[in-house]
Amino acid sequence: MKKFLKALKWFALSAITIIILFIVYALVKSDATYNAPYPELTASTDSSVIARGKYLIYGPAHCVDCHAPSSEHKLVEAGEIVALKGGNVFNLPIGNIYTPNITSDKETGIGTYTDGEIARTLRYGIKKNGKALMDFMPFYDISDKDLTAIISYLRTVPPVNNPVKEHEWNFLGKIVKAFGMIKPMGDANVPTSPEPDSTAEYGGYLAGSVANCRGCHTERDMNTGAFIGPDYAGKMSFEMLDENSQIIKGKHIISANLTPDKETGRIYFWTEEDFIRRFRQGRIITGSPMPWGVFSRMSDRDLKALYKFLKSLKPIRSNTPAGVMDGNPG
After folding, report:
1. Dihedral over Cα of 281, 195, 58, 260: its sign
2. How many CB atoms lie within 10 A of CB 256?
3. What confidence tens digit (pLDDT) does each residue in 237-289 have?
4. How far is 236 from 322, CA to CA, in rounded Å?
5. What burial class does residue 204 get, using C-beta atoms within 10 Å of its C-beta: 0-12 exposed, 13-18 middle, 19+ buried?
6. How many angstroms separate the Cα of 295 from the Cα of each of 76, 130, 141?
7. Whole-number average pLDDT of the chain
8. How far apart are alpha carbons 180 and 29 in whole angstroms?
9. 55-90: per-residue pLDDT in tens?
10. Across residues 191-214, what is the average pLDDT?
11. Left (φ > 0), alpha (ψ -120 to 50) or beta: where does 232 sit?
12. Among 127, 135, 223, which residue's Cα sits nearest to residue 185?
């Protein structure tokens, strides 16, 4: 009996030691920093370049959808040009994630960032301090030309002093970071982008590198973020959001199959006019995570390009219907 109790004691001590080491590792490793080159891009003062950047931010790249506070989302939906002052919070299982102020304010915004630092943030997913960003801005493959346009517009944004909280990681979040689940995603292998036009080629660039259609309409592993389903075939599950962009527990929405499959493709029977009309209508399903407000203001040219690209895809049969679901999706 004494031998058993002694063995049990050593087992308990060993388990406690392992747990303590695990906690220490998670706390220390979660502050890991990364390095990447600074793209050699410089902001332009050309009015057409700046206008392009504004269009991207308040349109297909939908930056304003996250970088405006939730209290102003109704204004965003209505098409108003609201300040990119941040403060929007995502209440996730790993903690509270706050979107930063990206106005030119030097104290609370990005006024002290160089053009290269802004470019590195977007291309590699690395913040100024070297820490990895959450994979909310998958603009790693956006062209140098469009990246320059975005930086150029941001340089013209009036400063707004709006302090934003640091991310509030819980212990699960620190574990996730410690084990490399939040890490830089860009690799600088940026494909050559076509000139803006109403072509399927340009539509593919918009869908994959700017509007993130692929990111939401392709099934992904929620643990790693890796794509595990056919591109644009839908089946990705999202928790529904209320009017303040907060999660509605127990309600999920499944992304639609955008490939031209006759039986399960959402837009198979749509004409180009139907497609454009749907975007102009804006949000119909309350709680949909799709940024309908900003997408509704995309140009006819860009919407035609997207339509042609989606219609050019290989038809994929999807066995999960798109729409709202109750409970946890299977």
Report:
1. positive
2. 23
3. 887 776 666 667 777 788 999 999 999 999 999 999 999 999 999 888 877 88
4. 9
5. buried
6. 11, 32, 20
7. 84
8. 9
9. 999 999 999 999 998 888 888 888 889 999 998 888
10. 92
11. left
12. 135
Encode 10-79 in three state secondary structure: HHHHHHHHHHHHHHHHHHHHCCCCCCCCCCCCCCCCCHHHHHHHHHHHHCCCCCHHHHCCHHHHHHHHCC
155 CB-side CA count, 13 A: 22
Task: Tally Cβ neighbours within 10 Å of residue 32.
Answer: 14
Instruction: Give CA 206 to chain center in angstroms.
Output: 14
**What span, in angstroms and rounded, lies between the C-alpha atoms of 18 and 179?**
16
Q: What is the pTM of this model?
A: 0.85
Backbone angles phi, psi at 250, to 5 degrees: 85, 0
* CB distance 28 to 20 below 8 Å: no
CB 140 within 8 A of CB 185: yes
Tell which residue, 194, 236, 192, 245, has the closest CA to residue 213: 236
- Residues with Cβ within 8 Å of 181's Cβ and at least 6 positions away in sequence, in order, are 223, 224
φ/ψ of 231, rounded to 5, equals -60, 130
Radius of gyration of the chain (CA): 22
Calpha distance 197→105 (Å, rounded): 35
